[in-house]
From TrEMBL:
Source lineage: Bacteria, Pseudomonadati, Bacteroidota, Cytophagia, Cytophagales
Coiled coil: none
Keyword terms: Hydrolase, Metal-binding, Metalloprotease, Protease, Zinc
Gene3D superfamilies reported in the protein's UniProt record: Cytidine Deaminase, domain 2 (3.40.140.10)
Protein name, entry field: JAB domain-containing protein
InterPro entries: JAB_dom_prok (IPR028090)
Organism: Adhaeribacter soli
Residue spans crossing the bilayer: none
Pfam families given in the database record: Prok-JAB (PF14464)
Domain of life per record: Bacteria
SUPFAM superfamilies listed in its UniProt record: JAB1/MPN domain
A GO BP annotation: proteolysis
Domain JAB: 85-138
GO molecular function annotations of the record: metal ion binding; metallopeptidase activity
Length: 189
């Protein structure tokens, strides 16, 4: 797993320490109560560069957003690239993260007192949640997000043409409407 930290690391660390106490005693479990997710612009930019680069080699790619909850808000402080096997098979492109890596991610999240809020991955063409995306998503917490970026990130910018899904108890991975996305996702400078 490689980790890209925000350049304003000091600020993030301070916020993290504050949230540690808050989160330990007061935060609700899960992500269903989260109304706004703040993602730093530099993480979005980094993801697009990574997706384009991997796309040139003909592969999809997966990244994870991790951070802390504060009330109904979630602050993404870490961008994680899990160790993943990139596959070009007869059924198309895919990526696989094995059990050891999932465990390693879980340990890392625990040690850094944060949790995952969502995953983001690239597609060679259209942005949609495939059957495999539904069943094999790394995010398994209700209220969690999955973002699919089309055309290896080449035709899209700042998630404008990306598809957003949220894992809901009744309907599983559920596509979000543009107005839901606008109120839920805030890209920060
Ligand atoms: Zn997919």
């Amino acid at each position: 797993m490689s980790i890209c930290k925000c350049q304003r690391l000091d600020l993030v660390v301070i916020r993290k320490i504050f949230l540690y106490n808050y989160a330990t005693y007061m935060e609700p479990i899960g992500l269903m109560h989260i109304k706004t997710v703040y993602i730093p612009q530099e993480f979005i930019d980094a993801v697009y560069l990574e997706f384009k680069d991997t796309g040139l080699k003909g592969f999809e790619r997966l990244a994870l957003f991790a951070g802390q909850k504060k009330g109904i808000e979630f602050f993404v402080n870490y961008l994680l690239y899990p160790k993943q096997q990139l596959v070009k098979g007869p059924d198309g492109l895919s990526f696989h993260v094995d059990g050891d890596e999932l465990e390693r991610i879980g340990d890392w999240l625990y040690q850094n007192n944060c949790c995952l809020v969502g995953q983001i991955h690239s597609h060679p063409t259209g942005a949609y949640h495939s059957e495999a995306d539904d069943t094999l998503a790394l995010i398994t917490t209700f209220g969690g997000l999955s973002i699919v970026v089309p055309d290896f990130g080449n035709s899209d910018h700042n998630l404008k043409g990306s598809a957003f899904y949220r894992l809901l108890p009744e309907t599983g991975w559920t596509k979000l409407y543009p107005n839901q996305i606008t109120s839920l996702i805030k890209i920060t400078d």
